[in-house]
Amino acid sequence: MIYVVKFQQFPQLFKSQQKEYRFEKCIDCENASIQRLSFKIPKMATTTATSITHLVAVSTTLGCSIIQSESFWTTSKMKKKTLSLKMSGARPIAALPFDLSPPPIDHDLLETVKSVGAEISDDGVIETFNNDDDALDAVENGVVVVDLSNFGRIRVSGEDRIQFLHNQTTANFENLCQGQGCDTVFVSPTARTIDIAHAWIMKNAIMLVVSPLTCGSITDMLNKYIFFADKVEIQNITKQTCLFVLVGPKSTQVIENLNLGDLVGQAYGTHRHYSVNGMPITVGVGNIISEEGFSLLMSPAIARSLWKTLLSQGVIPMGSNAWEKLRIIQGRPAPGKELTNEFNVLEASLWNSISLNKGCYKGQETISRLITYDGVKQRLWGICLSAPAEPGSLIMVDGKKVGKLTSYTTGRMESDHFGLGYIKRKAALAGDTVVVGDNITGTVVEVPFLARQSPPLKSSSS
C-alpha cells in the first residue's frame, strides 16, 4: 500500500528511517518548498485501519496533509502506482471516497465579508454587498456566488432512508443511485405545498436542502412519521455546514479552474465528494434556483478560504436581497408565498418533482385525482407590472377576480416591476393583460423555472 503525503517542515526527522521513506521532488506551491513522500507500510500491516491510523499519526506530528490514498493489489503481488494532482491557481482539490459527516462549526466568513462592506442581518444573513445591480447582471453574463448557509440542510440516514423519503415526498427515490440527485416536494395529505427540497443521494445518507422557513417544521414532521421499526435517523446539520451556490454562464469555467471539470456536463443533481486542505466538500450540478450552475456544501472551517478562492476567480458575490429578486424573476416558488396551504403542488407547476408511477405516498391520492379529472384550476405565472404592487393583491380580468399576487420585486432598473401570482387556467395565458390591485396593469409571462417544468407521461417511469 502506497500513500502520498505533502509536508513543509522537519524532513530531517526522517533521516534515521531512510529505509522506510523515500523523498521525491515535487512542484513549488505558493513559493513554499513542498516535497512528496512515498510512505511504505510493511505488508503485514496493510489493513486499512492500521494504515490510516499510522498515517494520521505521522500527519499530526509533522503538520503533514494527506493528498490521496489508495490500495493497489493484484492476484500475485502489490504494485505501486504514482498519484498526482493537477495544480491550478486555486488550492488542490482531490477526490476522496467519503460520505458527509457534519464537522464542528468554526469559521469567520461573516467577519471576512463584513470587512469589505457587506451588510449582515441580525440573524447572520448576508443581505447585500451593495452591488445588487452588478450581481444580477453577472447572472446573465458572468457568474455569482451566493452564501445560502441560512437555508436548511437535513441529513436522513439509516437503512430505510430511501423507502422513508420515497413515501414522504413526491419524487421517486427508489430509481436514484448514489451520486445522483433530484428535486422533491413536501406536501400535506391533501397535496398542499410545504416546500421544495433539493436532494443528494450519498453513500450512507440523503442530504436535503430546504428553505430556512421550513427546516424546523420539516425536521419535526419527518421525525413524527418514523415508526418503531423504521431504521431512519433525521439530523439537522444546518449549523454544522455551509452552502454556496454558483449561478451564471461562466460558472462552468470556474469549476474547471478548481480541477472539478469531471462534473461539467453531468445531469442535474449529480454530486461528488472532495477534500480541500483535509476538510470535506461536496459539489453538485445545479442549484435550488436553476439546473445550471453548481452547489458547494462544506465544513464551515474552509468556508472563508473557499469564498476567497472563488472571488479570486472573478466570481461576483451576491447578497440575499439580490437573491430574492433573482428568485422572483426566475419564477422559483417559495414557502409562505407561492407554497402554502392555499395552493396544491400541481397549481405550483412543480411537475419535474412529481412521480406518477411510484405507488402510494403522502398526497398521492389527491394528485392522481387532480390529474385524472383535470382538476387543476389555476397555475403560477410571472407578471410584468406597470407599477409597484403588494403581495396579496387581487388579480382581475374584465372586472372579475381571477387570482392573487404572491411575490413582488423591482428589476435591475427602478422602472421595472415584476411579480409572481396564481391565475385561473381559463382566465389568462402568456401575453394576456391583467389588472393587479389598484389599477396596476400587468402582462402575463412565462418564467424560466416554471417553463422547465413539464407534465410527465403517465406511461413513463419517473
UniProtKB/TrEMBL annotation:
Keywords, in A-Z order: Transit peptide
Family annotation (Pfam families): GCV_T, GCV_T_C
Entry-linked Gene3D superfamilies: Probable tRNA modification gtpase trme, domain 1
Domain spans labelled Aminomethyltransferase C-terminal: 379-449
Protein's UniProt keywords contain Zinc-finger: no
Domain GCVT N-terminal, chain residue ranges per copy: 136-358
CC terms in the record's Gene Ontology section: mitochondrion
Coiled-coil regions, chain positions: none
Entry similarity comment: Belongs to the GcvT family.
Protein name per Swiss-Prot or TrEMBL: Aminomethyltransferase folate-binding domain-containing protein
Species this chain originates from: Dipteronia dyeriana
